[in-house]
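Action item from last week, closing it out:
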Amino acid sequence: MNDIDTYYNQINSNIRKGKYKLLGSGSGRRVYDLGNGYVVKVAKNRKGIAQNKTEYEISSNDPSDVFARVKAMSDDSIFLVMEKAQRLKDLSYVRQYYHVYNNRQLFQINELRDFYVYNDLLVPDLYRCVNWGMIDGKPVIIDYGFTKNVRRKYYSMF
């Protein structure tokens, strides 16, 4: 077993022992605070694995600071370690940062529009403040694994 396997085995053991605070849970993943400035997103099923893979790929290929950065992902894509962001109570912090008055204006800003179009993100999903956080005083997207492709493959009935 190599060091990286030991790292994820330790995270898994600590989760089972209740050592990490559960920050949230969705249909495909649970998010735990590692207590060191990072969170771990743990896939519960194929949907979660697809979301982890998507976030890893976007983070690896996007040089901007619009997304919270992924630090590492396990070989099986079950564990994804990402920068921890401060939670937002509502999107007013994001609108204020970008100097706009409403969500419609927010997603018409070239910087954001280019990112959600290029990365196949679902704009209505980005209207939810739980998908945003603050790192170093800047709003970042913290949940960006639910793309149109992931929705089509794993969430659509048809």
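Closing note: The longest strand covers residues 38-43.
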